[in-house]
Amino acid sequence: MMEVELPTLIRNHVQIRGKGSRAMIFAHGFGCDQNMWRFVAPAFESDFKTVLFDHVGAGHSDLSAYDPKKYGSLDGYADDLIDIGRELNLSGAVFVGHSVSAMIGVLASLKEPDLFESLVLVGPSARYINDHDYVGGFSAEQINELLDFLGSNYLGWSAAMAPAIMGNSDRPELGEELTNSFCRTDPEIAKSFARVTFMSDNRADLSKVRARTLVLQCSDDLIAPTEVGRYVHEHIRGSEMVIMRATGHCPNLSAPEETIAAIRAFV
User: Fold this and answer.
1) Catalytic site residue 80?
2) Which domain does 206 fall in, by range?
3) Which of 54, 200, 221, 233 is catalytic?
4) What is the pLDDT of residues 195-245, one digit of tens each?
5) How many structural domains compose the chain?
6) Element (H, E) at 218
7) Are 206 and 119 in contact (CB under 8 A)?
8) Which CATH number fits the domain that encloses residue 24?
């Protein structure tokens, strides 16, 4: 393992492993950090140079780099992803993004088309709020209530929501891990990132994607129901979709072997 001493890579606590000539970069979801990929990323180190990082505000990122204006939309996070790619001279890489990072990867691929040859979108959602005929999984009222609860009592929200997001109630240790991850995140930054995440609408971006794309959809996901994943699949031209046996929103933790197998079959 090596940590490259460059400002961008320090800002996002970039970690590089593996020995392949081609890169695979893993991006974590809301309230998480790169540790969420610990059961998946090592499986690709023999064939790829694996790149893991923390979004600003998460994990061991540089919290002083957080700028509310820059990170007031997903574009700011996409720009960081592009910065990492440029610092490492990446091109034709494989991007693996979980939850909100799926759309961050989509945006980065549109801004910098040569960066990613393939996108693996794990539990993606182009919009969380229902809109006319579009099923996002939540009403506007539900999202507003969620954000109000999070804003007034972040730790209470984390304790209540993390196990529901994780699913797999028969394995409570998974929900506990996600709860602890949420609780390690800076509360003020988390509140802002939650609003950016749950109010985002990237539906119009899907048709512009030209990278090879795989949508990994869990079979019972509270945050990104099957209709949501199917919408992403149907609106990215030529994409593939795998509906996993895994349940919940975090198959990288709950079903790493199935997640690895699906990614490996695609790349």
Assistant:
1) no
2) 7-126+200-266
3) 221
4) 999 999 999 999 999 999 999 999 989 899 999 999 999 999 999 999 999
5) 1
6) strand 212-220
7) no
8) 3.40.50.1820
